[in-house]
Amino acid sequence: MRALLSFLPLWRRHALRLLLGILLAILTLLASIGLLSLSGWFLAGASLAGFAGLYSFNYMLPAAGVRGAAIVRTASRYFERLVSHDGTFRVLQHLRVWVFSHLLPLSPGGLSRFRQGDLLNRLVADVDTLDHLYLRVISPLVGALVTIVVVTVGLTFLDVSLALTLGGLLLLTLLVLPPLFWWLGRPSGAAIAHLRSQYRLLLTRFLQGQAELTLYGARDAARAQLDSTEADWQRAQQRQADLTGLSQALLIAVTGLTVTLLLWLSAGGIGDLPTPGAFLALVVFCALAAFEALAPVAGAFQHLGRVSASAERLQAMITTPPAVQFPPTVSSSPVRDGGVALEAVSFHYPDQPVPALQDITLRLPAGAQVAIVGRTGCGKSTLLQLLTRAWDPDSGSITVGGIPLPAWDEASLRASTSVVSQRVTLFSATLRDNLLLAAPHADDATLAAALERVGLGRLLSGEEGLNAWLGEGGRMLSGGELRRLSIARALLHGGELLLLDEPTEGLDAETERQILDVLEEVSRGKTRIMVTHRLQRLDRLDRLFVLDEGRLLEQGSHDELVAKRGRYWTFLQQSAL
To answer: What is the CATH number of domain 2-318?
Structure first.
């Protein structure tokens, strides 16, 4: 329950709209009670008057009241749904933005403890679940409380004892049933939230891994696990449905007992009337309508368990401390020349016993063209992640352009750094949108020039040009084209520091040669740090750094390392086999 407190300010942003929805809900309940009570009294009074009352009984005024209550109920119910759902959707809109804004600072270090499918489920399903708090808990509860007060006060004009009896039973029902079924429904609500996330995660893995599961004969076992989770999820939903039925059954039983009690108390007369007459129908129908107002509340608190579980899952995510904290503005402003220096840098990933980097020291002047080579898993990509502040080192210091890396504000660091990642993301959007990601204000001529420079000018040859749709529903790019697209983004971005993470991984020899030619061209005048375990054209670089098991073993030019006949020379011999 405490987890919900941090989300309540989002509801306060739309307090007037949501309050109007509650007022309209109250008006709808009161109109329904008035309609049913007045109709009962009118029919009973008309039957008692009979033909003899054609000229003495006022038929017009009650009929007008019935019609007016019906119109008010219909109109208020329509506008209540309109206003309440509009307010809820606005809250969900801001809630998603608010949750996502808390996720951004966590990436990627703080998010490493969450699986991607689980993150998506929390951002979508758990946020959607929070709309129950207003629609199914707060609004029905406030409406029921106001209805009890109005009904009790209204009946006191007929009979105080009947009014207090009905009001007391209504209030007792409101105080007992919701907390009881919240307590009973809390385990199943939490189970539904957990199993829903688990099922969607397993389903995503099952669909994405169809090829491997089929090839290795594990498809049936994965399907069995998926079916088992689904069965548990359905059982949890069944338990909550059973509780909903039980709550409605208890409410019907309490309603019947209350009406019976009111009939018994009214038998001796209502108020100053020795016989109850038509007012007996008014009291009975008023009681039935009032308990009908409690119907949503009895089962609503079952949803509170699910809402609380979703709120706790979201709270655990948004309260995760960021692995990296950026200052609001850069602390100093020396010349940013693209030079990089690492002094005794060590780092290990959380919950990993073996360090990823140990006591790394290297200094690169502005404009240096270097490569960091080594076997897969030796710490090369980790070093690039430290330079982009995806993580901070456990010890040692890093400076970029003469500024300590922790002193850079995020916007300035991102503007000064261009990255060609190993995995290139192709967004399902136009070619223009995929390029504007790196340079939002670039014109079409600049975008076209960047494509021509990296050898992707043929993408412009169609009628659509930069409007050509890429990704799902459009043209897919090959591995070489994706690498070129990433280089075009880096070129448009224009950072002084160019970081390349395995830029030729998975490419054939000819495409690799073309990519390296493009990289040599676009990196002139910039500081280039290339991480690779492939050893082609390294003789053209200024300096090479050899990593193994997180340690810097060798550094020097290609010729110096070959003459040394150390680890780099061994790599060359192995690659030649």
So the answer is: 1.20.1560.10
Tokens at residue 334, please? 């020396």
Sheet holding 543-548, edge to edge: 417-420, 497-501, 527-532, 369-373, 543-548, 551-556
Burial group, residue 2, by CB count within 10 angstroms (0-12, 13-18, 19+): exposed
492 vs 449: CA distance, rounded Å: 10
Distance CA 132, CA 74 (A): 23
Residue 408 class from Cβ within 10 Å (0-12 exposed, 13-18 middle, 19+ buried)? Answer: buried
The chain-wide mean pLDDT, for the chain, equals 84
Taking domain 340-426+477-576, whether its CATH number is 3.40.50.2000 is answered by no
Burial class (CB in 10 A: 0-12, 13-18, 19+), 156: middle
Euclidean distance between CA atoms 232 and 239, whole angstroms = 11
Strand partners, 546: 373, 554
What DSSP string runs through 364-385?
E-TT-EEEEE-STTSSHHHHHH
C-alpha pair distances (Å), 124 with each of 14, 93, 206, 428? 21, 11, 20, 20
Residue 158 has pLDDT above 70, yes or no: yes
Contacts of residue 575, defined as CB under 8 A and 6 or more positions apart, other chains included, come to 534, 535
The pLDDT tens digits of the residues spanning 267-319 come to 878 877 777 778 888 888 888 888 888 888 766 666 677 777 777 778 877 77
* 3-state DSSP assignment of residue 464: coil
What pLDDT does residue 334 have?
42
Cα distance between residue 381 and residue 385, in whole Å: 6
- Per mean pLDDT, which range of 139-148, 302-311, 527-536 is the poorest? 302-311
Residues 390-409 pLDDT 10s: 888 989 999 998 888 888 88
Residue 249 pLDDT more than 60?
yes
Question: Could you tell me the two tokens for 63?
Answer: 């009929």
Listed ranges 169-173, 306-310, 565-569; the one with the highest mean pLDDT: 169-173
- For the chain, the domains span 2-318, 340-426+477-576
Coil, helix or strand for 440? coil
Report how far residue 550's alpha carbon sits from residue 569's, in angstroms, rounded to the nearest whole number: 19
pLDDT tens, residue by residue, 18-42: 899 999 999 999 999 988 888 887 8
Coil/strand/helix, residue 7: helix
What is the pLDDT, as a whole number, of residue 302?
66
Mean pLDDT value across residues 497-521: 82
What are the DSSP calls for 552-577, one per residue? EEEEE-HHHHHHHTSHHHHHHHHHH-
> Are 521 and 487 contacting, i.e. CB atoms less than 8 angstroms apart?
no
Burial of 268 (0-12, 13-18, 19+ CB in 10 A): exposed
Which strands sit side by side in the sheet containing 340-347, from one edge to the other?
357-364, 340-347, 395-400, 403-404
